[in-house]
Amino acid sequence: MRSAKDFFRPLAVGAPTPLTQVPARPSRVIHFFDPSNPKMAAKVPGMVGTVDVLLGNLEDAVKADSKEAARAGLVEIAKATDFGQDTQLWTRINALDSPWALDDLTTLVTEIGDKLDVIMVPKVQGAEDIHYVDRLLAQLEAKAGLTRPILVHAILETARGMVNIEEICGASPRMQGLSLGPADLAADRRMKTTRVGGSHPGYLVRTDPVDGDITGARATAQQDLWHYTIARMVDACAMHGIYPYYGPFGDIQDVVACEDQFRNAFLLGCVGTWSLHPVQIEIAKRVFSPSAEDVAHARRVVAAMGDGTGAVMLDGKMEDDASLKQCLVIVELAERLSQTDPALAELYADARGATPPVDPPTAPAAREGAR
Ligand SMILES: CCC(=O)SCCNC(=O)CCNC(=O)[C@H](O)C(C)(C)COP(=O)(O)OP(=O)(O)OC[C@H]1O[C@@H](n2cnc3c(N)ncnc32)[C@H](O)[C@@H]1OP(=O)(O)O
Ligand SMILES: O=CC(=O)O
Ligand SMILES: [Mg+2]
Known about the structure:
The protein is α/β, with parallel strands linked by helices.
């Protein structure tokens, strides 16, 4: 364990000073591409500005004999591309127990460290994995003369990683966030599924039999296999001031279920998700941006709550300090997204115009009468 006084000191002489807060940049959609695939690589420059994050993937989904080509391809793309202010460049390196991880880190930080915002580390098992990457990154940053620390994002995709989730989140000031890795996590937990994310028709609840007739018609409802895991991840991230993300949704054609899964994660507190195919980009951007209706309602509550204390009635519902805090989450997110997304800025400005007038705060005497 490091002393609190040392936590924000660089881990190598000449390395940049660690950040005390994770920059709050939009990351609704983390778009994966394989830098060794010429067709995908060619599309990357044209995607700048259309996604919040472009992620050059070096790990799973890149063939073993293409690992070096993917790494070299990413270096080439990063050097040749201006990512502008609104699109970040991330990478997913190979697993720390693979023969490629060390070369991934060494090459990427020394060659394109000034362009890389976040390094995603797969199959993180505990704080020791983050400590290893943390020190190595500091040495490489010092060697490369970087002035800004590269942040670290861990994928939650082993049972051990789940058990150690809090210590992973708090292992380094570099920690930017966590993503759910449902495919590897399902395998590691020995879940009996064969899908990449999403739920399963066999995971359901059924209503009780009527008059003891167990064979009669009984409604069932499919449940979310990932509810516990996502909720756990959201709490751990919130506690440590870092960001939670859904991960891959592998059924590219089922855009409807993809949207549902993303929305569940958004409602539970995730800030973004991965897109594996261009068709998932707009879904992710739409779902992880609050709706105009929610923003308009949240603004009404903020206006109605005045100094933020006490209770008021709005549309027949009680609002108070706690519901105000929820509304502020929505309003602040809308304002942040408006700074980088002109279409959302317009949408949310229109929502302001459409906002119905706020009822005057209910006077204590009137509230008495309403009881
Ligand atoms: C499960 C655990 C994990 O680790 S998930 C993360 C790792 N997996 C990935 O990163 C997968 C990334 N995506 C892909 O490899 C492809 O999208 C897969 C799913 C294989 C589908 O590819 P394909 O059969 O070519 O799709 P398609 O014919 O519909 O493509 C249409 C055009 O779009 C392109 N495209 C496809 N995916 C991307 C992408 N991620 N980024 C940029 N471009 C993409 C295709 O190359 C194709 O281009 P064109 O029209 O032929 O010029
Ligand atoms: O890497 C992602 C996963 O689901 O596994
Ligand atoms: Mg995985």
